[in-house]
Amino acid sequence: MLAGMLPSIALWSPLPVILCEVGWGARHPEWPQELAALDALKALGHGTTLVNGDEVDVRDLRSTTDVLFIPGPRA
């Protein structure tokens, strides 16, 4: 779903904050496709944190995790 929204998100100003449940982490059967969408958000300027504010690298996720994508300067 997120991959399909990327063209619209890229046009928004300011960029939105996105709360996304990343299902299964690296165990997801479509993990490379998920990473592609998450990398695209990063390229738009989003940083990633857990809901408690701790920074997180989505590539390190090993289980279902709620991740906040916080907009910063556009890349």
Outline of this structure?
The protein is an alpha+beta fold and 75 residues long. The protein has helices at residues 2-11, 31-44, and strands at 18-22, 46-50, 65-71. Helix 1 runs parallel beside helix 2.
Overview of this protein structure:
32% of the residues lie in helices and 23% in strands. It is α+β, with helices and mostly antiparallel strands. The protein has a three-stranded antiparallel sheet, with helices on one face. Helix 1 (2-11) runs parallel beside helix 2. The radius of gyration is 12 Å and the shape is globular. The model has no long low-confidence stretch (mean pLDDT 94).
What is the CA–CA distance across the termini? 22 Å
Number of strands: 3
Biggest β-sheet strands, sense, barrel: 3 strands, antiparallel
Radius of gyration: 12 Å
Mean pLDDT: 94
Low-confidence stretches: none
Shape descriptor reads: globular
- Fraction of helical residues: 25-40%
Please write the string of helix (H) and strand (E) elements. HEHEE
List the helices and strands and how they pair.
Layout: H1 2-11, E1 18-22, H2 31-44, E2 46-50, E3 65-71
Antiparallel strand pairs: 1-3, 2-3
Helix pairs in contact: 1-2
Q: What attributes characterize this protein structure?
A:
75 residues, three-stranded antiparallel sheet, 2 helices, 23% strand
